[in-house]
Amino acid sequence: MKIKIRQEKQSDFNEVFDLIKKAFITEKYKEPEEQLLVERLRKSNAFIPELSLVAEVENKIVGHILLTKLKIKNGQEEFGSLALAPVSVIPEYQGNGIGGQLIKNAHKIAIELGYESVVLLGHENYYPRFGYKQADTFRIELPFDVPKENCMAIELVHGGLKNVSGTVEYPKEFND
Fold first, then answer.
1. Whether the predicted model's global pTM rises above the 0.90 cut
2. Torsions phi, psi of 87, nearest 5?
3. Which of 18, 111, 112, 142 is most exposed, with minimal Cβ within 10 Å?
4. What is the number of structural domains in the chain?
5. Domain around 23
């Protein structure tokens, strides 16, 4: 299976909306409006067009990933980082490594854009294979109560979180 990863275009928005909805339809702990979150984030100051990627197989969009800006705050100190939310693959293409390719490509582009870290809330058995560790090992916490094994972060560059600690401040669009 040949997978092409490219930046999402405005003409992809409707297809990506449907894709995200399908990808999360059977998710036990799904955020039922994940596709609406992506729409809100695209219109926000946190949106980085280069970090909204799609995966195509035979010219059909089968996957999507979005990384947006966030802050990690510790008192008066603020540190820039990225949120990975969501990564989506339609059910019939899941298990083929598409999500992994989207994550790796997004990481590569984020590094090229000068970002040093990514934070996420996700499956504790999936993301560690891409280098994610529990966020508390970096002295980072999320602003809400969730199992710590689901709160993860990654240093995109060596030492990217070395002098960072605090609480994640998501863009307001995550709370709408």
1. yes
2. -115, 130
3. 112
4. 1
5. 4-174
